[in-house]
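dude i think i finally got it to work??
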Amino acid sequence: MRLAWNNIAFDRIRFAVTVLGIAAAVFLMVFQGSILLGFVRAASKVIDSTSAEVWIAGRGVNCFEFPVEIERQVGEIAMSVPGVASTSRICTRAVQFQKANGDQQLVSLIGAESQAGPMFPVPRIAGSASAAEPDTLLIDESNSQSLRIQRVPADVEINNLRARVVGSTTGFSSFLGSPYVFAGYADAARYMQLRPGNTMFVLVRVAPGSTAAVVKDALQKRLPNLDVWTRDEFAMRARSYWLSQTGAGGAILIASILGFFIGLTIVSQSTYATTMENIEEFATLKAIGATNWFIRRVILSQSCMCGVVGYALGVLITGPLVNAASGSIPWVAKTSWVAGFALGPTIVMCVLASLVSVRTALSVEPAKVFRA
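look at this
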């Protein structure tokens, strides 16, 4: 509406401050939303990358990163359950990684059998889709600098045992701070000094014609002292654990909510000040017969105009900053729909900010315009 635009354009400095405040709020919501989404994805990345439909873990294990040892014979018992096509093992533990220059660093070593799935990073012998290459490691490209692996192959040590980095993978940047390093299961168990006869997770592939839910229930009955989850259930359990029980997800979410309230405060103050400066105009409108709905539309329109401009500016500056942040936070999500999702909260923010101003404008007496 022209009247709404004239009201906010009259004081351009206030309009600019309002737009910048909304842009800052949008930036916080989108940036923190991208970090939160990336954090959630990273929390279950290892689980989601396997092709096994069912996971068997120790009782009370909440996520992949903190396992407990279980007996190796669990896999043999699982094979006797109808609907199970095959099983494989996977393990993880923090180990000492010694670089070529002698520097040492803690890394999260992950060992898996090749049956974990074609998308799961396991060092494989050239020309073989299943056999793991012995004494070899893979690292994620995002960790090559922190591990000081400039070229491959590179000789290193894991817990004082010799190993060789032979390649890299992508998409497996650790959100824990210690980089992921991948090895074949036998090598990883040896590096970790895993007790003979024990493992950490047993992955179960379901036979054609069977469903993961049915096989999971059958396995749970045979293994009452262990936890049996479908892959999706275990992934959700891991995300929930990192979001709600560690405080990390909560801190990210609070920062995003903080952006909303920062914008709400700025828009409320600006809209109220604009309304009070033009209060006699609203009295005149009421005196000549303007309806309450018309006045509401004027105030809502001027708030939403500021919101749309601020939203566009916020999204414009957020994209490059998210891309820049991915250099130090490789798992941050670079998804355009996060920015689109922020439009709704931005409009809600502007509508809420208008409530006090609407009440003030509606309460003004039409006779005010005739007073000297």
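The chain is about 50% helix and 20% strand.
im so relieved honestly
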